[in-house]
Design brief:
By secondary structure, the chain is mostly helical. Pfam families: GRIM-19. Belongs to the complex I NDUFA13 subunit family.
């Protein structure tokens, strides 16, 4: 039994065209646009950095001048505090040693030249 010979043929109307072209989606801005954007951002950053440095310099200058103007007041306050503490210490010493005859508050307790320092060393 022999079947009749039948040749394989394309479909009527032909085959679909072969898609050989690349169909890539849009992948973002080009290199020049990115470079321009980065340049703009960096320029703005340097501008802000310059403004910040100017402000920091001004604050440092202001702090220095405020310290210069406050030093005499702080020294006077320290001197007043030292004087007040010395007077309070003398008053406490006077109160504590009131029963000791010949005690003078504020005087040195070292009555011997031996304890007065290098200049007055007594050689034995």
């Amino acid at each position: 039994m022999s079947l009749p010979y039948r040749q394989d043929m394309p479909p009527s109307g032909g085959f679909e065209s072969i898609k050989y072209k690349r169909n890539l989606p849009f992948r973002g801005p080009g290199g020049i646009v990115i470079l321009a954007g980065v340049t703009g951002i960096v320029t703005y950053g340097f501008y802000q950095l310059g403004k910040g440095n100017i402000e920091k310099r001004e604050l440092i200058r202001e702090r220095a001048w405020s310290r210069i103007h406050l030093v005499p007041l702080l020294l006077a306050e320290g001197d007043r505090d030292t004087y007040r503490r010395e007077q309070a210490a003398l008053a406490r010493e006077k109160e504590i040693m009131k029963d000791v005859k010949g005690w003078e508050p504020g005087q040195s307790v070292y009555n011997n030249a031996r304890y007065r320092g290098v200049d007055s060393i007594v050689v034995l």
